Amino acid sequence: MIACVAVVGHQNNPLYLQSFTGADDALKLHHIVHCSLDVIDERVNNPKRSVITLNESYLGLLYPTESYKVYGYLSNTKVKFLVVTTDLDVKDTDIRSFFRRFHAAYVDAVSNPFHVPGKKIISRIFAVRVSGIVKAFAPGTYG
Amino acid sequence: MANYLAQFQAIKNTSDRLVVAVEDVSDLWPSVKEGLEKRLPLKKASLNNKTRNPVYVENLQAEFILTTDSRLRSRFPQEQYLFWFREPYATIVLVSCEDLDEFKTILKPRLKLIVQNEEREWFIVFVSKAHPNNDQATKNAKKVYARLEVDFNTRKRERCCKLDLNGVDASFWEDFDFKIVESIRNTLDRRAQFYEEEIRKMSEQRLMPVWNFCNFFILKESLAFMFEMAHLHEDSLREYDELELCYIETVSTPGKQRDFGGLEHGDDQAALLKPGFKPLSQIVQDDSFREFEFRQYLFARQVKLLFRLGRPLEVVMRGYSFIISFSKTLALHENTLPFCLREVWVISACLAIISSTSSTYDGLAAPDNEKEFYRLHGDLYSLCRIKFMRLAYLIGYGVEIEKSPVNSASLSMLPWPKPSIWPAVPEDASAKVLAKEKLILQANPRMKHFNIQRKQLPLEPSSLLREANRRRASLSVGNLSELIDYRQIDGSGIDGHQKFSPSTTNSMSRTYSGPNLESSLSLDRPMRISEVHVAAEHALENTVTDPDLLKSLSSLEEFEQKYMELTKGAADNYHHSWWKRHGVALDGEIAALCFKHGNYDLAAKSYEKVCALYAGEGWQDLLAEVLPNLAECQKILNDQAGYLSSCVRLLSLEDGLFLAKERQAFQLEVVRLAHSEMKHPVPLDVSSLITFSGNPGPPLQLCDGDPGTLPVTVWSGFPDDITLESLSLTLTNTLNTDEGVKTIKSSDAHILKPGRNVIKLDVPPQKPGSYVLGVLTGQIGNLRFRSHNFSKGGPQDNDDFMSYEKPTRPVLKVLKPRTLVDISAAVSSALLMNELQWLGLIVKPIDYSLKGSLLSIDTGPGLMIDESHTIDINEYAKTMEDKVHAHDSNTITENNTHPLEPKQLYIENGKIALPDWASDTSTTLWFPVHAIDDRMARAASADSPHRQNMVDGMRTIALKLEFGAFRNQIFERTIAVHFTDPFYVTTRVANKCNDGTLLLQATIHSQVKATLCLYDAWLDLQAGFVHVRKENGRPVSSFFPLVISPSSTAGILFSICIDNMAIADQNEVVQAESILNVMYGISGDRSNGAHSPTSLKLGSSDKLFFKVAIALQRPILDPCIAVGFVPFSSNCLRVGQLINMKWRVERLKDLEASPSSSCKDEVLYEVDANPEIWMIAGRTMGHALLSNARGSRTEITVTCMPLVSGHVRPPQLGLPAMDDANISCNPPGPHLVCVLPPTLSSSYCIPA
């Protein structure tokens, strides 16, 4: 299950964070997403280290812990997309496809002329769309 | 083969180095032992690794063992085959012989026997005991050795070397080392090949039922062990890696149900670094090994090799991933394992890896590796910390764990342990249950500071109470309702205890104090939370064997100490790694514990770090969680500056993060502190809270030197109105940074409403340039605050980390000094002298308002303003228009007869206040002036027309215009106005009639741009002249009025004659000059120049009167003396050439005829020359001899030199003693001579 999706700006500032746990515990997800930036920073700053070449937007699994996983995706403009999932067995292709949809939704949202670049995304349509993508996400549904 | 496991283990433990066998044929070992063993370990050995590539091994350990030694002798052949790795890798045959025959007969066959074993790698060391002085012995030994070489060396390989006991050759040892290494290498290759072949064969059977992992393991580990002995650790490690893969594959094959292990005492402590923790024979499970022990064994072996290879980083990397993966494996078998073994095992494993590697890491590795190393350590600490917290939570310390995002993230998503049956409450545990109950009840629910109401974050994935009861085997479904009741009381887990009402507590304590407590704990009744804790604690005591861990869980203090240790460990290591955020977040946890223990100083420091991180990256949700804690620390520490700043930061967080009530509380704190007596008033940065910007639209433009009012928009982020005692802003000149910043102040108290406020600030005159807003400063109570934050004019910007990038827009432009106004005279030509005239001044504002301006007028000498008259003012542009129209219609109209917006102004003390309507338009001011000139106009001779000097008619007016908002701008100008007489008169005698009548022509030249109209003119003659026929001196009356157009002339003829009578009355005082009186009128436009005097009605025919003096001379009828200019001797004069000027003076009459002259026979002369043209040498004045007789003559010569070239007037000779009338001159009038430029003089030329 996807616990949370987040968009983080190029200055590591949160642009959007939506929790799907149902409980009133978004703060811990804030923490998880924030800490995951460490991993992204490390990968971006040490291309030698990272397993995945940076030619690709998809950063892969950032954070294997016992209880949840964090996947990352980095756009050309250094906007980071993160997904926290409690599902421990997720196929890479599913996540990749999820991120592509998520990215597309983000691009549409920031193309809104009333959106101030670098500010939080407050578009309701974006939220609905992201919720839709998250709901549609189930392992194996995407090729 | 599996039966050999125990033996295999024993062999491995005893043999740790390669064995080199020594076949001591000639009993030489005692004498050579020392020398040989000195060579060990082998300094440098070239071996082949598994892929047959050469590897250089340093300090290869080996051991010499005599073949007669029991260790080599007592082995069964099968054992030898199995454990081949321990067999000798080389055989040294030590021989000595000095007799060739003896060698041939005895030694050689024996040696042949020894070396016939093909599988052995051998070489012969021939030891020569011969003393070097003993030639014979040496010779013999050489012979024998030569024979030995022939017999045993082959073409491919030399197997002999010679050791001289007396005097060892250095080359021998090299040879010896080489031979040993060669033998070892060959043996190693052969054995590795053998093992590989065996392993390959066995691998092929892997999927068959006959497959036995133990056999495979023995072979594989033998190979690995052999590599390890040969210091080929890399190959050895690879063997273990393959072994591990193969094992995991074997274990994961479905079908076979195997024992997992982990049930024995002490299994809770990870054996990751202890390969010999349990003998392998104990963990055999059918054809394989128990997973729990065996995987740890394999890992321990790998770690050992990694340490040998000097790779602590890899140890940590493999360690961490092993722990994670093994923890998952443990989770699969959790229902068979003791309660919480998994957690306990992870804790011990992490600590073991940390302690083993932290000491070995030397820090010499690359910085990248170092960071990775620390990161992994941080991960290990962090993992350990999470598991430790989980254990602590289970036994009831959860109430004391900070419910922070960090802890919540790690614990609330971590599932509970899943034992098959949740541990039950032990017997006789009532006291413990009570104690736990007490602990829970006494737990001080941490109130958030500022009364912030926030739902606490969960630390448990699901309610522990429900989980524990669900997993109790005996709990029937019927008890579910009871369970639900408990849940209601319990709320969301442990936090629910805060909601226990006193009555509940009482009833519960009553229940527990009863003597029949045990019976009340019937199996059917669900456990209370305190019972769950007691049960868990009891179960853990059975699981945990590590006394340290037990101690850490024994009491709250011990728990907190361990918790602190782990958190600090994780944080410190993360700080050294790339993962700063992890470290800082954990700093927050350290701070929370410090705060709890009253260590506010440390807590504040840590909290500051956390806040800085969150604020720096804009994670306001997280910041809102930590910042109140920091504020509380600062409040307790009495750090007013910090506390204020924290309050301001709290206020500047996003709106949704705090309730309005909470925000008001923050503001109250700020205001309270601001108005309190602070020891050291602190500056406060409110950039995030109060922002400001210039008004939208173009910047305010001011002229140089003008003050102004600058409106500034100030956004207040305070939730309520806030009173500012003062407010000031700095302006920075963008063009000239040298000037520094200017501060503009608004001293009034302002009340800032939440949101947008517009404040007007007075700007004193500034230097030219473009100004941007700098810093907003102000005072709230005693508090000086400043804000650097610009807002774009939109709503307040909260992302303060972004806002510094915004481009600053100039709010004020002070223009460069320029002319703001221009005043010029409206007349283009001269005005009438001695008459009242309108003087026009055009006041022309140049894009600048002249509102309230004051014009001071100061007239120069010879000019005065008639203050009795009003001053006209009218619009200049209109005037011009009117004029154009007037010209179109060919009608001359006076402009000021149709003034559109005229105003009559009065001059007071030389100052005129300009009316408001004239502030933006060009206006013409007309004021009456009177130029005075006392001199009487004189007529000039027509021959030498003498124009009136322009300077004589010039009058000046000094003007000073004070204007601008505060009359701060000053414009000063002095205007010259030209005044003139209406005309000038030239006279000449037009004709001399025979009867003595002279026709005097007076030519009147108009000097004004106005039409003059002469009404009358008459001539008052001087003595000696009379009008013909004694008339009144007027021309014909029908002649008038005579109209003279501007700049034209008119002439009047007068007939006069010389009055001979007059000479007789010389003594009378008579009129010396004739006077021409003219009665005239003038009609002109005042904007053009001369016009009717102001005092007269415009357009009226009142006449003006003008007098001109005319000098008349009696004609020279009989001159006494003639003066003649003698022509020059040379044709032309040149500059710089001396010439003699000569005049001839001749007496025309006898002196008696002239009674006025004296009796002297000499004449006074004077040479008059322009000194700029002529240089006179000698006297210019003197007496010349001239006899009184008629016809006498004389010549006066003056030497002079012309100074300029051209046609110039020569010097003139005058006779001052003579009346002009008595002198006749030749030439009669002024004449000119030509002076040429000087001849060129080559001496002045400068050669090129």
UniProtKB/TrEMBL annotation, chain A:
Coiled-coil residue spans: none
Any Gene Ontology biological process: endoplasmic reticulum to Golgi vesicle-mediated transport
GO CC annotations, alphabetized: cytoplasm
Pfam families per record: Sedlin_N (PF04628)
Family under the similarity heading: Belongs to the TRAPP small subunits family. Sedlin subfamily.
Name of the protein this chain belongs to: Trafficking protein particle complex subunit 2-like protein
